[in-house]
Every structure is written in C-alpha cells, then in structure tokens.
Fold:
Amino acid sequence: MRVIFESPPVPAVDKFPDGRVIRGTAKVVARLFDPGETAEEQYVARRVALWRSTSLRSDGSIACPPPPFMTGPLPVFIPPLIIDSLPADALLAIQWELKPGGQP
Structure:
C-alpha cells in the first residue's frame, strides 16, 4: 500500500448526529493497493477500473466531496494524470481524514 495523493489540510468541523463536535484539519488521502495486494480492513477500496467506470468527471478527474457531517472543506479533485497512471486491477481507497485540534 502506498499513498498516491494527499490534499493540503484545511480547517474542518465534524458534527455528528449524537451531538459530538470535533474541530481540526481535514485532508483527502488516496491509497493504492497493488494488484494481488489485499486492502487493509480500515480502508474501503475498489478496483481502479470501477472508479474509472463510475466516478470519473468529464475532465478525467475524480471528485472527493467532504462527508455530509463535515463542514469547512470544499471538494477535492484527484487529477486525471494520477488516475490514468494506475493499473486497472489495483485497489484504490479514497477517504477524508480529520486530525483533531485547532479552532477552524
């Protein structure tokens, strides 16, 4: 597994239905699991071919909007140059990560 894309961290607030609020910085991280490699349990990974067939924008990028409970960040776009370079049968996990701390 290797990180192939990481957005700059931006101020964010997670507001959960149970009332918890976590302030910090958030970023998008894309991890590639090479063909034959198994994705670790904490990552929701899909084959690159599936990402390409279901999630590509007209410019060839993949949009990563923040989760519905997160406020602050704007969508992040993984560039087509990165997506085009990946093997179709590899696994790709894309997720937002929040680092608590600070006062966004």
In short: The chain has a mean pLDDT of 93. The two ends are 31 Å apart (CA to CA). The longest strand covers residues 21-33.
